[in-house]
């Protein structure tokens, strides 16, 4: 027991002496060198957190846009093998009376052919100016409450509940406005020579034949959400007249609720509806799987870049500490000669490495959460498929801080260990 107490006392004394020596060396160190090391540590931290956060944020931005612009926090669609949600009206009533549901957007959807040229028939061997598209029947006021649909109206005007005979077309369906118009993709077609005010004909197939109705294009919808930019929108009551059967049954319902409450609401709806009446998902579950695969790939790329940054930082700290120890080898030998323990000297260099790592990480945290994250939230990166944001959490950042400090401590300990192992007399004499 006595021996254990002596060892502990010796260890604590080495820590105190090492702390004292580290403070003196930091105070007397070249300020430019110290600033450079801290700057490298800040860049390393930003590489660990910000670069990977931006890569993941490219995809996370599309997830967020999908939730806010189309699906809501809970998305209900027809079950596999069915063309509508069973007992839709009972489900709508349940949602309208649920205390945690803030708004819903019931939608009718159907496949349709859109003919863009009504006056001239196509010439022989010429393709008709028509496309196949998904037709959404919406209530503009309810849709606005859930998704803010009017913000996607790029040209023209939104649908008016009091007016019939008008249509809103997604920008990627019109050659003049599509982002893919210059891509020679087999099977990809667009409406040509149509714009605001043009008359188009919407046709739907029935068992008894084809039903058609002419509409005037009132607006062009543009968004980085395929469900907006590649669909056409009419008033729900007009689409219901064209649907042959199950006119009151819906194909989609988007639900606005608290993001954290969404999984609970999904389970409540499944209990209410039964397992086979509809597909009920949170917005995260409704995201296409290929986007999830892209998110995983971005995570891997971010981790790879972060690993390179860690290696660079560790080598930098190692070189700085090693050169510092080599240039002070005579001083280290004298300290050992007057009775300062090698452990205390090693601790002094470890504390120096900790100083660089902690200060660099602190500045990095301030830059990330005080400047960069608010900036990218207010000014997302404009990518063709999403508005990129910075994904960074305090828990994830502190994990990276811990990794950075561990690497820094090892990089500070090793060179000090190598120098201190030298013979004391050789160190004093510079041999």
Automatic annotation (TrEMBL):
Family statement: Belongs to the ABC-4 integral membrane protein family. LolC/E subfamily.
Keyword Protease: no
Keyword Secreted: no
Name used for this protein in its record: ABC3 transporter permease C-terminal domain-containing protein
Major location (coarse): membrane
InterPro entries noted in UniProt: ABC3_permease_C, Lipoprotein-release_system
Compartments, as annotated in UniProt: Cell membrane
Alphabetical keyword list: Cell membrane, Membrane, Transmembrane, Transmembrane helix
One Gene Ontology term, aspect cellular component: plasma membrane protein complex
Membrane-traversing stretches: 34-60, 304-326, 347-371, 391-414
A Pfam family it matches: FtsX
Membrane-topology descriptor: Multi-pass membrane protein
Residues covered by the ABC3 transporter permease C-terminal domain: 304-423
GO biological processes: lipoprotein localization to outer membrane
């Amino acid at each position: 027991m006595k021996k254990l107490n002596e060892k502990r006392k010796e260890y604590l004394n080495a820590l105190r002496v090492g702390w004292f020596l580290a403070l003196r060396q930091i105070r007397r160190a070249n300020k430019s060198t110290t600033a450079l090391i801290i700057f490298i540590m800040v860049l390393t931290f930003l590489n660990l957190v910000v670069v990977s956060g931006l890569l993941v944020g490219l995809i996370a931005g599309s997830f967020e846009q999908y939730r806010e612009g189309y699906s809501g926090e809970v998305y209900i669609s027809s079950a596999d093998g069915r063309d509508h949600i069973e007992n839709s009206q009972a489900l709508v009533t349940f949602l309208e009376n649920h205390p945690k549901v803030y708004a819903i957007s019931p939608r009718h959807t159907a496949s349709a052919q859109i003919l863009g040229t009504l006056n001239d028939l196509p010439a022989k061997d010429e393709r008709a100016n028509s496309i196949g598209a998904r037709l959404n029947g919406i209530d503009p006021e309810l849709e606005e409450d859930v998704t803010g649909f009017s913000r996607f109206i790029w040209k023209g005007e939104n649908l008016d509940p009091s007016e019939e005979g008008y249509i809103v077309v997604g920008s990627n369906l019109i050659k003049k406005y599509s982002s893919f118009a210059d891509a020679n993709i087999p099977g990809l077609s667009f409406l040509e020579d149509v714009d605001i005010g043009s008359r188009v004909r919407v046709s739907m197939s029935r068992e008894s034949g084809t039903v058609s109705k002419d509409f005037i294009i009132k607006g062009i919808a543009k968004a980085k959400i395929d469900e907006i930019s590649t669909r056409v929108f009419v008033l729900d009551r007009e689409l219901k007249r064209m649907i042959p059967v199950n006119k009151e049954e819906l194909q989609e319902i988007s639900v606005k609720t608290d993001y954290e409450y969404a999984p609970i609401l999904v389970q409540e709806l499944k209990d209410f509806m039964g397992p086979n009446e509809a597909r009920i998902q949170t917005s995260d579950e409704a995201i296409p799987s290929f986007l999830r695969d892209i998110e995983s790939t971005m995570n891997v790329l971010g981790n790879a870049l972060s690993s390179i940054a860690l290696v660079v930082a560790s080598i930098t700290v190692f070189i700085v500490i090693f050169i510092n120890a080599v240039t002070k080898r005579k001083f280290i030998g004298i300290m050992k000669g007057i009775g300062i323990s090698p452990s205390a000297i090693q601790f002094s260099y470890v504390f120096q490495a900790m100083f660089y790592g902690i200060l660099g990480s602190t500045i990095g945290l301030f830059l990330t959460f005080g400047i960069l994250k608010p900036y990218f939230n207010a000014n997302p990166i404009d990518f063709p498929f999403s508005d990129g944001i910075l994904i960074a959490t305090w828990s994830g950042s502190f994990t990276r801080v811990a990794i950075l400090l561990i690497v820094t401590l090892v990089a500070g300990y090793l060179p000090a260990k190598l120098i201190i192992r030298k013979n004391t007399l050789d160190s004093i004499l510079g041999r």
